[in-house]
Amino acid sequence: MAWEPWTRVAELDLRDIIYEKRRLQAGGGAARITINRPERLNAFTAHSVNEMATALDDASHDPEIGVVVLTGAGDRAFSSGGDVEWEAGGGLRRQFYHALPPNHFLRMCRKPIIAAVKGYAIGGGNHLAYCCDFTIAAENAIFGQNGPRVASPADGYPVAYLTRVVGAKRAREMWMLCRRYDARQALAMGLVNAVVPLDKLEEEVDKWCEEILALNPTCIEVLKATFDSDIDYLAGSFGRISSLMAPDFFEGPDPKEAAEAFFGKRKPDFWQFRKRRTRS
């Protein structure tokens, strides 16, 4: 099938996101959202998430767009999750208790979303990828979670949904042990739909887009909403468990220790704070 060239959507003034569209000559089109912070391994802040939401909303309401591609700039990372400096400055606390996770905007978009993963998909980048409708990985992709390693008490449906994707045992392994998985391991456990050489990723994504666009767009939108309804009952749980289990966590010593260890390039010592509580 013949594609028109990618054209940047100029009317949306976006800084952290590159937002483009293109159409098939036979009809139908694709939108592409690229997290454009390669110097930070495409880590996102609240501003990045808001821009992503703006682009997804636009694609959702464009009648000529039938599929969305989400990716990261460069070959080193899809996304390494929340920007550590932003999190250390209080961004993580505000995101947990006063905002919505980026996964929410994936679900609000009526069009199916393909995550095209190159390099690292870690932390928020990993669950952003597995919450997309499809995930296609380059051979250099690395997946994993970081929450307990960096004192980020993730909860709610972005965590629980992984049990639907890879099963309960693998989901707990990924979240609670913070292991890393290469592209072939991710394919074997059902975390991704396909793995291709890095230089073939865009070509493979085009094929998946073409297959989707060859089908009835209304039926595809209904199916996406139907699949997403399976996790609707979990949608209000983001931040609730953390606020109940550890309401003062972000004011405590653990996040500070995590940030200082990260910037000091050392392992964090979280158990020191439990020891102090035992002695007191």
Please write the CATH class name. Alpha Beta
User: If strands are numbered along the chain, what order do they take across the biggest sheet?
Assistant: 1-2-3-4-6-8-11
Mean pLDDT value: 89
Radius of gyration: 19 Å
Please report which band the strand proportion falls in: under 5%, 5-15%, 15-25%, 25-35%, 35-45% or over 45%: 15-25%
* CATH topology category name: 2-enoyl-CoA Hydratase, Chain A, domain 1
What is the end-to-end distance? 70 Å
> Which structural category do the helix and sheet elements fall into?
alpha/beta
Helix count equals 13
How would you explain this protein's 3D organization?
The chain has 13 helices and 11 strands. The strands form 2 sheets. The protein has a 7-stranded mixed β-sheet, sandwiched between helices. A 4-stranded mixed β-sheet has the order 5-7-9-10. The protein has one domain (7-237): 2-enoyl-CoA Hydratase, Chain A, domain 1. It is α/β, with parallel strands linked by helices. Helix 1 (46-61) packs parallel to helix 3.
